[in-house]
């Protein structure tokens, strides 16, 4: 029987306990890394967190003879002793700065070190500001005018009860700024190849994420990650394909309110 989980939001990855008097030996394993890559890292202007995450991904890829791999934030957090929130933030910054690149659902080091954006700690903010400024053209004004016209038209168009409910739900979701894509990404990172990965978003899935968001005790990306991790750790193997049909739980199945309740109560 699965263990009962009293609180999803209290589920945390334990930091690795480092033994005293440990001697690093090649015989215990080593990571083959190009000297140019190490020298480029040594001369970079990365923050301490960014450097930790970078080294952890080097360890998780090159350390296993791979260029790319599916690496969850919790795996990186275990190596770096950073919180998963800080790991996710640093990882996204490194992707923006082109130190890391994504390939499908896998991540790896960008070996073309000349592509790295080696700026100050504000590099990511500067990049975003520069990109946003390019969008501040007359086209934005035309877009705003178009939006006002659409809103005016919508006010004069009566909605059916069903349309009204959907419109209200979508409006509330926008107001609460539900991170749809981030939730999908966290699910993929957490389940790895144990469950089918989610590839895309649509209106139906966004509505399901909106309802799921309300089921969380303290709605946040960390709370969503905690839930997915608890499901993977406590759910019966039946949900992972060990059944006569070969059926496996999916992203949509985990979003269901009754699945959240059963996971919280340890009933899977």
Count of the separate structural domains: 2
SS element count, helices: 12
Q: Supply the helix-strand structural class.
A: mainly alpha
What is the molecular shape? globular
Description:
This protein is mainly alpha-helical. The longest helix is centred in the middle third of the chain and has 18 residues. The termini are close together. It is built from 12 helices and 3 strands; from the N terminus they run ααβααββαααααααα. It has 2 domains: 93 residues, Orthogonal Bundle (Arc Repressor Mutant, subunit A); 104 residues, no CATH class. It is globular. The N terminus is likely disordered.
Please sum up the structure shown.
This protein is mainly α and 268 residues long. Helices cover 53% and strands 4% of the residues. It has 2 domains: 31-123, Orthogonal Bundle (Arc Repressor Mutant, subunit A), CATH 1.10.10.10; 161-264, no CATH class.
Keywords, separated by commas or semicolons:
268 residues, mainly alpha, Arc Repressor Mutant, subunit A, 2 domains, 12 helices, disordered N terminus
Secondary structure blueprint with pairings:
Elements: H1 35-42, H2 48-61, E1 68-69, H3 73-80, H4 84-96, E2 100-103, E3 106-109, H5 123-135, H6 138-155, H7 161-176, H8 180-191, H9 203-215, H10 221-234, H11 251-255, H12 257-264
Antiparallel strand pairs: 1-3, 2-3
